[in-house]
Amino acid sequence: MVLTVAEAAIPLPLPGVKPGLANIVTLIVLARWGWRDAVWVALLRVFAGSLLLGQLFAPGFFLSLAGSLASLATLGLAMHLPRRWFGPVSLSVFAAFAHIGGQLVLARLWLVPHDGVFYLVPVFALAATVFGLVNGLVAAKLMQGRVSG
């Protein structure tokens, strides 16, 4: 919750482009306790974060929910990939791409009834790559430190 609220205070150069810092927690929960617990954490974060920020049931809430559901579905599938080659970093990147995909599809279907919304894909893909990598690396480092510490 703290990361969600803190992230809302960060000035963003483009609406909708956020670092997704709270996803670090979701990745750690996924690795330690499994997909069901990660779903609870992620959805609780979406609902409680929106409530705390006064955005419950506003368009941003539904965009966040759509992104989270797409991300969680992707993580549920990706968990079955060989852990030898797919760890926190790759899972984070997959989840970040699914998140923007879910948001863009909902935005296209509901908020911007024009295919022009998809011109934003390169910008969001770059953001998903950068933030997905960073969040995955932070999650991996935190999990590594916990195991060896």
Can you tell me about this structure?
The structure is a single chain. With 149 residues, the protein is mainly alpha-helical. The protein contains six helices and no strands. It has helices at residues 2-8, 23-33, 35-52, 59-78, 88-111, 121-148. Helix 4 (59-78) packs antiparallel against helix 5. It is globular, with a radius of gyration of 15 Å. The chain starts with a helix and ends with a helix. This is Heptaprenyl diphosphate synthase. InterPro entries: Hpre_diP_synt_I, Hpre_diP_synth_I. Keywords: Membrane, Transmembrane, Transmembrane helix. The chain crosses the membrane at residues 61-79, 91-111, 117-140.
The count of helical stretches stands at: 6
Largest sheet properties: none
**Class by alpha and beta content:** mainly alpha
Total DSSP E strands: 0
Low-confidence stretches: none
- SSE string, helix = H, strand = E? HHHHHH
Q: Roughly how many Å is the radius of gyration?
A: 15 Å
| Spatial separation of the terminal alpha carbons | 25 Å
Shape: globular
**Helix proportion of residues, in percent?**
over 70%
Q: Can you give the mean pLDDT?
A: 90
Determine the strand fraction and express it as a percent band: under 5%
Element layout with pairings:
Layout: H1 2-8, H2 23-33, H3 35-52, H4 59-78, H5 88-111, H6 121-148
InterPro entries: Hpre_diP_synt_I (IPR014535), Hpre_diP_synth_I (IPR010898)
Protein name: Heptaprenyl diphosphate synthase
Keywords: Membrane, Transmembrane, Transmembrane helix
